[in-house]
Specification:
Keywords: Antibiotic resistance, Membrane, Transmembrane, Transmembrane helix. This is ABC-type multidrug transport system, permease component. It is a multi-pass membrane protein. It comes from Modestobacter italicus (strain DSM 44449 / CECT 9708 / BC 501). The protein has 270 residues and is mainly alpha-helical. It has one domain. Helix content is 70%, strand content 2%. A hairpin with a 2-residue loop joins strand 1 and strand 2. The termini are far apart.
Length: 270
């Protein structure tokens, strides 16, 4: 009998399959789902209930906090979730096994990006719904949605690439969470997520300005807050042009770091 060689599936087909695998694996892990999806929701519920005061111009703290908690949710779904998951898969041999298959390596990253996109959209939708229904948060309108989309998109892209790069910092999967989570928390505290950015000491504002979370939160504040509150920003304006520039630069930097640091197995194969 003669055997007929079947053609390999197209790259597009492999990428779609890999994206489906990534989504199934994520939603089957209850811990990841609860932490990534529910943590921002818990933050919104707690801070919205406890810090219910007026900031001026008829704006409540919850309205201000909405931008920060969405930025934190994007950071968690991209940088934090990506870094921990990749470090775990590297440590348990999953990456090494995938590298030895005919699967195009690009399909692995496409699957991760699709997972981040899906989870990010889910987080944003849940937060907007809770904010509007329970706290009367005014949702974006008109051209503000365009700003919302490009800020969230650029911020997510930058944090996703950084997450892939940061995954190499952890020695193994067991230490990944302990390595990455403190970094994410510090960035949230100094980037104006949990309280007014104007209340952050100036030297910490300077440090925060070096990283994408501060700029993502600032760009999102321009969507949820009236222009009158732009005067409370360090530059006295929303600086949307600079927001786009910094997030774009971080996308390039993140890509370079990914190429230079990503590896398919631990340095010491256990």
């Amino acid at each position: 009998m003669t055997t007929v060689d079947r053609p390999l599936p197209s790259v597009g087909s492999v990428c779609r399959t890999r994206a489906g695998v990534e989504l199934k694996e994520f939603f089957r892990q209850r811990e990841s789902v609860v932490f990534t999806l529910m943590f921002p929701v818990i933050l919104l519920l707690v801070f919205g209930a406890v810090l219910d005061y007026d900031l001026g111009s008829g704006v409540s703290f919850t309205q201000y906090f909405m931008a920060g908690v969405i930025a934190a949710g994007i950071l968690g779904a991209s940088l934090q979730n990506m870094a921990i998951n990749i470090a775990t898969e590297r440590s348990d041999g999953t990456l090494k096994g995938l590298a030895g298959t005919p699967m195009p390596k690009a399909a692995y990253f496409v699957g991760k990006v699709v997972q981040v996109f899906a989870v990010t959209v889910a987080i944003i939708a849940i937060l907007l719904a809770i904010g509007a229904v329970f706290y009367g948060v005014d949702l974006p309108s008109g051209s503000d949605w365009i700003t919302f989309v490009w800020v969230a998109g650029l911020g997510s892209a930058a944090c996703t690439l950084l997450g892939i790069a940061v995954s190499s910092l952890a020695r193994n999967g067991r230490s990944a969470s302990a390595t990455v989570t403190p970094i994410a928390l510090v960035l949230q505290f100094i980037s104006g997520v949990f309280f007014l950015f104007s209340q952050v000491p100036t030297w910490l504002q300077t440090i925060a300005a070096l990283f994408p979370l501060k700029w993502m939160a600032q760009g999102l504040r321009s969507v949820f807050l009236p222009d009158a509150l732009a005067a409370q920003e360090p530059a006295g304006s929303w600086e949307l042009g600079r927001v786009a520039l910094v997030l774009g630069i971080w996308c390039v930097v993140g890509l370079v770091l990914c190429v230079r640091t990503f590896r398919w197995q631990d340095k010491i194969d256990r």
